[in-house]
DNA sequence: AACATATTTGAAATCGTTTTCAGAATAAGT
DNA sequence: ACTTATTCTGAAAACGATTTCAAATATGTT
């Protein structure tokens, strides 16, 4: 199948009348070469259309120029945004990303991680994930590691997160300011998903805002889903079934918010006239719901880029400090002032 | 940073009292080894927790056990579905995927492809893309290549596509059967996006259904977008601005359909009471629009899986025939019978 | 001009496997 | 028991770079 007449560094050396070592030096640039020879080498490379063999390079140098990215469940908009950012940030660098998918299953995640490690990635970015903290710390010993969208105690300098509690607090405050008193919250079960701390933090933000406003959080106004649209739909059923009046719903992510929106439609409840709705994530399509969804924007792409840049700095032993990432409330049309 | 005391094949050889060659043989299994020694090797591997160095393997064998995947614009739900399928299908194999993103820009795509090739992928899956057909054919000479979601003349046996024309035909027929006569179509500009043949085929299917029903396709009922939600929104503006009455809209993809849906909402047009709407792709969230969108489901994940399997067969010189992929109409609630 | 020092260079070792080749061990055939 | 096949096996040569080391050349000082 492959036809390629392989051009090796030897060929270049011969063509340019120098030794292979010299060719290697001009290639890597980590040792000086006199201008004339450098020129000769460069033209030879050009002439023969030489492309170094990555494996030989990696074997000899111990660097793979590859970075591993572990994600969860390809297709989740927030995570995909992060991946997209990573891809973009890596493009101008010599590093190529290689992906694994943990699918929110500890065993799968572990295998995927091992595969990545076996490929001797120079660094690893783990996006979310369920691996026990101890394991993560162990990995961090083996390889430069950045964790995105998850906070691991003991390696916080390598974790990029968004202040979920604060963002949820502000979202809830906004509802309060709009005159809502009975605010339901759709969250995700901690038992089902493992400790998805960001979802829990959002819950905490919600509670805090309520409490500060002198409102006692009502467990009857809490519904648990699993982050899917379907579960948002069912959450509405639970909520209205309980016959506790509410005028607003804060969903812990946009996917559930979308389900909630449909659930309300099914029940003949108008948004925002009867019930106000607020989501979290700013998924692509969320701006095109009817009505456009008020939500909390998470800077996913920026987060991905920052993660990639931080990792490269880490690999090269450079010091890196993160920008902190702030989520911001995107006010659209799904929240109305309570009359 | 990395601490690892490298265990090499030599260590195993010493431990098991055999030669490295023998160890290699039991590892690869492509030469017989007597049971006793095989056992010894296996236990040695176990004991020392040996993991072969991929680069040395690749260098020596000429196989990278890596397959390149070129996608366009990470974050597009249909493409992401394909990627997800590829990832799944590759998981049980020794191959790992490495990704590149062409971003729907010819130059970027070319560079991404070159990067993939430089990494000596054993095979390549190109999802969509803009590369001229001649270039694709050239790549196909260099490396086993599968193209998903695009048809390249001259290598159709390596292309997996869905019969877009037929699917669009059926979608349009469905609208006709529901009594609609004035059916608008939101398509994508061929000039902007290059020859996205699948979108063009959808247009053809639309025309065919209309013509067969004795209806002359009206250019005033055609609006061009760029596949984005935003462009769907604007398409509605164009359409109503032309003051040509219509009772149904067929959008060439779900993202535009979502935009269309919002556009109609803005105009105070109800779906489906005033205008029926049908999309194409069956994006995740499309089932949770209000009302749930009737659309055409493309089996993205299955397509991705099939692509990966086909590629592996191709790499190993096995013959492979594809299942054909049929899109199917998903009837939900955005289409009503014309009264 | 002579010496010390700094800069460039090439030869050769190395990275950790696979694979070829030929010899050793075993099995089979008469 | 003696060839003749047939399995197995190890030594050594790839694979295609990088990197160490020491030699060669250039530069600077006195």
Brief summary:
Two copies of one chain form a homodimer. Chain A is α/β, with parallel strands linked by helices and 339 residues long.
What features would you describe in this structure?
The structure is a homodimer of 339-residue chains. By secondary structure, chain A is α/β, with parallel strands linked by helices. The first copy, chain A, has 3 domains: 44 residues, 434 Repressor (Amino-terminal Domain); 124 residues, Response regulator (Rossmann fold, 3-Layer(aba) Sandwich); 134 residues, Response regulator (Rossmann fold), CATH 3.40.50.2300. The first copy, chain A, is built from 13 helices and 11 strands. In chain A, the strands form 3 sheets. Chain A has a 5-stranded parallel sheet with strand order 2-1-3-4-5, with helices on both faces. In chain A, strands 7-6-8-9 form a 4-stranded parallel sheet, with helices on both faces. In chain A, strands 10-11 form a two-stranded antiparallel sheet. In chain A, helix 7 links the parallel strand 3 and strand 4. In chain A, helix 1 crosses helix 3. The first copy, chain A, is elongated, with a radius of gyration of 26 Å. At the A-B interface, helix 4, helix 5, strand 2, helix 11 and helix 12 of A face helix 4, helix 5, strand 2, helix 11 and helix 12 of B. The structure holds a DNA duplex (30 and 30 nucleotides).
